[in-house]
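Changelog note: in this version the structure field was regenerated for every chain. One regenerated record is shown below for reference.
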Amino acid sequence: MNWYWIFYKVKTNRYVIVSDEDCKRGEMWDLLQDGYDIVWDSAINKEMAKTHVKEQIDAYLDAYQKDYPLVRLPLEDPQPLTLENIPISFKEAKNFIDQHHRHCVAPHGHKFSVGLWDTDVLVGVAIAGLPIARHNNDGFTLEITRCCLKSSIYKNGVSRLISSIYQAGKAMGYRRIVTYTLDEESGVSLRACGFKLEGLSKGGSWNSSARPRIDKGPTGPKKRWVKMIS
């Protein structure tokens, strides 16, 4: 049996339901850090948690008001977590990537970046730039060089980020989008967004005698994904 938790943020009047399995992976601490509080941890399934959301949050707010009588509580019913896309600067995207990406640092530049916003906090970013591989840099190809989420709780946000890059790239006249994943990554989110697996790059170090470099990411084979813009 997988238990479910209800987290709630007074400031935004938003809640999110998280499985016990996800909480054990560390997502609990991400939510607490972002201002959410635990209001219930005893639902035996997600449907039960949904049914008891208002009841548990109302009980939580009653206790909260006693501790903080001067705080004005939300008048409307609590709403589920809603993510939206926002434009962000390269500096903001770079700082987020350097803090949260599992295995890569931020690239050196971008064409544009998109943020994923949880009402009052940045929880994900995607960076679009010119293709790193010279044979792809034909003037009409855009590359998603980084896509990063703060927590797996926001995993559905990947499609929102990729969709934004697609729409922006289309408006700018690009005809194709490429991106890469590690060989061991499934690419399920990319498939869901319409990308096709084009091949496997051989990988290797960027360092050479002609241009010495320090590799700041994985150097193994990578899957190359492509989506045509129509």
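Spot check on this record: The longest helix spans residues 157-172. The radius of gyration is 21 Å.
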